[in-house]
Amino acid sequence: MTKTILTVDDSRTMRDMLHLALTEAGFRVVQAVDGLDGLEALDAAQADVIITDINMPRLDGFGFIEGVRKNDRHRATPILVLTTESDTTKKQRARDAGATGWIVKPFNPEKLIDAIRRVAA
Amino acid sequence: MDPLAAIKVTFFQECEEQLAELEGGLLAMEGGDHDPEIVNAVFRAVHSIKGGAGAFSLEALVRFSHVFETALDLIRSGDIQADQETLKLLLRSADVLADHVRAARDGGVVDEGRSSAMAEALEALASGMGGGGEADTGDGFDDFVFNPVSIDMSDAPAPADDSVAALLASITGGDAGEAEAPAADGAPGQTWHVRFYPQVGLYQKANEAGLLLRELGRLGDVAVRLDASGLPLLQNMNPEDAYLGWSADLTGPGIEEAAIREVFEWVEGDCYLDIVREGAPPPVAQASGVDAVGEVDVMALIRAAQAAEVPAAAAPAAPVRASAESKAPVEPAKAKEAALDAKAQAAAREASPQTIRVDLERVDRLIDLVGELVINQAMLTQRVAECGLQRASSVAMGLDDLEQLTREIQDSVMAIRAQPVKSVFQRFPRLVREIAAMTGKEVRLIMDGEGTEVDKTVIERLSDPLTHMIRNAIDHGLETPDEREAAGKPREGVVRLAALHRSGRIVIEISDDGRGINRPRVKQIAVDKGLISPEANLSDDEIDNLIFMAGFSTAATVSDISGRGVGMDVVRRSIQSLGGRINISSRPGQGSTFTLSLPLTLAVLDGMVVTVAGQTLVAPLTAIIESLQPKACDVRNLGPNAQVIAIRDTHVPLIDIGRSLGYRTVTPPPTEGVALLVEGEGGSRAALMVDAIQGQRQVVIKSLEANYRPVPGIAAATILGDGRVALILDIDAVMVPKPHEGGGPVAAPANGGLDTVGAPTSLAKVG
Amino acid sequence: MEDIVQRKTGDRIELISFRIGDQEFCVDIMAVREIRGWTPATSLPQAPSFVKGVINLRGAVLPIVDLAARMGMAVTEPSERHVIIVTRICDQQVGLLVDAVCDIITVETGTIQQTPDLACDVVKTFVKGLLAMEGRMISLISLDNVLPTLDLEPTGAETASILAA
User: Fold this and answer.
1) B128, B154, B180: which is the final residue of a domain?
2) CA of C122 vs chain B CAs: smallest distance (Å)
3) Neighboring chains of A (3 or more beta-carbon pairs < 8 A)
């Protein structure tokens, strides 16, 4: 069954790149433009995996992840954060908020799919 | 287009938007706005550019944006205060960032010296404030950092059961510190022993032990055993807790410890992880051995599970999972609360207009089709009128409705291509900064009406003339700070750029509070260059407008600032080619204001339809000042070949367009026709003779050059209501006839005194 | 269109033939967009005598070339009986004024003969070859030079203009 991935990023470029890599790998993609948009799209998307950026307007990645985890249907939905930041504080903070793992930007499609494979069968 | 190439185009478009956000935010901060959201937006703009640049391996852009981002991060966290000096640095850095973006996009080069200097300044800013971010490797990329995990048993929370503790103790006892050895060499057939005991946090973050173990299996051959000894009795079990652990034996050539750790990198803080390279002695446990209660070959389970398309870790984790899910119905209220929360937030957000992206070609085609519609509707109306139908008949009234509808459609369609002038204006703050720096002047730019909308075709051609005028305003108009102080003005000069709609046109004003036009000097230069006669008596306004004349320049040595002395005449011609007009008004010592008036769109023209020698022509309404019926007493001969007509207190050349365009060789008496007083470049005026005026009409402009070639005296063509092509006059071309080259028939005058019409150039220039 | 004559024997091309005066000509049908009757053209100032003016072709401005005049024959006085062949030359559409359209013919390129040397230069500029068919001689026209290039001097009587370029 085709898996659905919810991508949350305020950068159009990043959304396009994720879309390209994920659809070529056979996933169905739902897009959101920031944390608030992502929370709204959450239930309708029925995502199997969520990929989110950290720095976004209105509601950032951390707030979004916390919001996802408060949603009972998504307590166990894998969430991967995208980060270019090398300091471990942000990664730990993402984990503290409930993120399952992270993907470092710039990513290549293989790394992206690998990461997804680590969280979804 | 290759999808990645398309995304790259999107990236550069997005960069432009981010650069605009960046500059706007920094300007707002400079203006005193302390909203933290603005600082965040500024940071995100640079962060976003860096992210995309990394994806496309745009090295120089990544490097610069990283340094910039680091500084901005410290500002948004409050570690650095953004005072005026700092903001000026940031604004200049934004300019350099823009240069990098454009160089990356267009393949150009960036001023290396300036870029390095800016980067150093940013680094100094960042490091001067107590060190940048932690663990910053300085190149912005996440190198794999080897973090050995040391398992300190004394810190571990009490396990649910003693057997786990015993097991763990046995691990520690047998290791002799090998767990912390650095990455081992990949000896062939090396075996690693991995012990993995997830904590509760691991599951809460949706990590799955089974998937992690599967990942391990990709490194080599692995045998995994479940240790369920930590499971308490069912009645003592907390479904959310973690009781299970696994030990895995991983065998294969070239496996490094770092690779094994990487499998678990996400969950390091949420599990016990122990990785031991096997020494000489045979491995501690064999896959087939069953030493403790509850050991199962988990790997086989996983493979079986995969084959059956069941989530891999379902079997061992099932007891924990199932209970977690059964917990869900117990708390529906909480879920609803969360959902309501999100909705409330959504309602609170401001509605932003929905947009879609459309191919420009499609819009252009739509505008063409609507133009056809307008023509067809006009033709239909005309034919119906010719049939003699009553005005009040249902057909005629239906046609009126159709005309109304067509105009509304046309307005709506034109609005699609309308863009706010902001897209042209937004490059000016930077331009002003640079020119101010180059000329040593202090300048503040005020912009009004950036949201005023103009057709895309007009906007694109506004940029050059506006740039030129702003350069002029700063270079020539504004005094140096010392001069201004001496004159009792503030040291900082003001340049104001405003756009507004006025009576169906767009008006743009560029004003400065500088020294104003130096009228005696301008007049003298015009005399020196032979543009006016020394005795010419000109009003103040007329003197001011002399600067638009060809060949005029106020700089004795050409100033690089104002573009190699290219003068206002070029600007005026550009504006007029857009169907616009430009004026200047000035007050000595106080400043000057340029006013541009432009049509809202280039695709249509307000025209006056006239007949000349049996031909139907259209004259652009914007060029026509008035029309009049010449009286014989007002028409005078001037020299052998020319005629002028007296209009109030001036004389203007009288030109027979029928002759200029070669439609006839004999000029009929002016009293039998109509004269159109027109104004062209340089403010010069002429009276164009036509046979009759048919009316005023908005016409759709059709290119003559698309299928043919440029025709002298003709700007373009249009299609009138009767379906026939009518030519649109190029006013500037027809009103400035060159002196007769000799040759060509000059007809004997049919009635007194009326001869060929040609005027010497100097006459045409009289105001 | 020199290549038409040089294509290997065995290639077939489709041509549309038309009449001007008592002579018959043809052009590659691929260049022809449509055929219309004559409508009065708006004359262009300073135009050469072989440019009759422009007409409205569904919203586009189409120049009309009097092919007879272009080839040095007498200027045509157009009437409703005349025909306009709308052709596409490079990126431009041009209408050719002719007396009547005759036929669509398919020929093998090998049967096209070279234009004889006795033809004057003007003719050689336009006529790329000759076809013999059913006792008729049909001249194959190349359209590339039909419209004047920008530096050609306009011919015709209307040079009386005081308006230099």
Assistant:
1) B128
2) 21
3) B
Chain B hits for C158, Cβ within 8 Å: 662
Q: Tell me, what CATH number does B18's domain have?
A: 1.20.120.160
Residue-wise pLDDT tens digits, B185-206: 445 677 888 888 888 888 888 8
The domain total for chain B is 5
Average pLDDT over residues B67-81: 89
ipTM of the complex: 0.90
Which of B3, B4, B311 comes nearest A121 by C-beta? B311
Cis previous bond, B282, omega within 30: no
- Does residue B260 sit in helix, strand or coil? helix
What CATH code is carried by the domain that includes residue B228?
Answer: 3.30.70
In the three-class reduction of DSSP (H, G, I as helix; E, B as strand; rest coil), residue A45 is classed as helix
When CB atoms are compared, the residue of C42, C45, C60 closest to B662 is C45
Q: Work out the mean pLDDT of chain B and round it to a whole number.
A: 75
Same domain, B615 and B708: yes
**DSSP string of B477-516?**
ISPPHHHHHHTTS-SSEEEEEEEEEETTEEEEEEEE-S--
Look at C60 and B662 and tell me if their CB atoms are within 8 Å: no
Q: Is it the case that residue B210 has pLDDT exceeding 90?
A: no
d(CA B161, CA B159): 5
Question: For B34, which DSSP code?
Answer: -
Mean pLDDT score, C51-72: 89
Residue B375 domain-assigned (yes or no): yes
Give the rounded distance of the alpha carbon of B438 from its chain centre: 26
pLDDT at position B333 over 70: no
CA of B242 to nearest chain A CA: how many angstroms apart?
A: 15
Q: Is the pLDDT of residue B660 over 50?
A: yes
Q: Residue A49 belongs to what H/E stretch?
A: strand A49-53
Domain co-membership, B617 together with B757: yes
Taking only residues 45 to 74 of chain C, the set having a beta carbon closer than 8 angstroms to any beta carbon of chain B reads: 45-47, 53-56, 58-63
In a domain, B486, yes or no: yes
pLDDT tens-digit map of B571-584: 877 777 676 778 88
CB contacts < 8 A, A to B, total: 150
Cβ–Cβ below 8 Å for B717 and C61: yes
Average pLDDT, stretch B527-546? 80
User: pLDDT (tens digit, 9 = 90+) per residue, C21-36?
Assistant: 889 999 999 899 999 9
The domain of B629 spans 604-763
Which C residues 80-119 touch B at CB under 8 Å? 92-94
Chains C and A touch (3+ CB pairs under 8 A): no
Quote the minimal CA–CA distance from B83 to chain C in Å: 59
Assess whether B608 and B581 both reside in one domain: no
B653 and B572 assigned to the same domain: no
B427 and B526 part of one domain: yes
Q: Give me the CATH number covering residue B731.
A: 2.30.30.40
pTM score of the predicted model: 0.46
> How many CB atoms are located within 10 Å of the residue B281 CB?
6
- For A106, the closest of B55, B269, B331 (CB atoms) is B55
Is B579 in the same domain as B539? yes
pLDDT confidence bin for B303, thresholds 50/70/90: low
Mean pLDDT (whole number) for B262-286: 73
Which residues does B503 contact at the CB level (< 8 Å), separation at least 6? none
Inspect the interface and report whether the beta carbons of C163 and B737 lie closer than 8 Å: yes
Res. B169: pLDDT tops 60 = no
B394 and B458 share a domain? no
Question: What's the topology of domain A4-119?
Answer: Rossmann fold (3.40.50)
> Is there a domain that residue B116 lies in?
yes
Sequence ranges of the domains in chain A: 4-119
User: What would the mean pLDDT of B406-413 be, rounded to a whole number?
Assistant: 82
Residue among A10, A87, A118 minimizing CB distance to B212: A118
| Residue bearing the bigger pLDDT, A34 or B732 | A34
Residue from A13, A23, A43 whose CB has the most chain B CBs within 10 Å, to mutate: A13
Residue B26 resides in a domain: yes
Annotate C15-36 with b (16+ C-beta within 10 A) or e (fewer).
bbbbebeeebbbbbeebbeeee
**Nearest chain C Cα to B737, which residue?**
C163
- Is B335 a residue whose pLDDT tops 70? no
Q: What residues contact C22, with CB distance under 8 A and at least 6 apart?
A: none
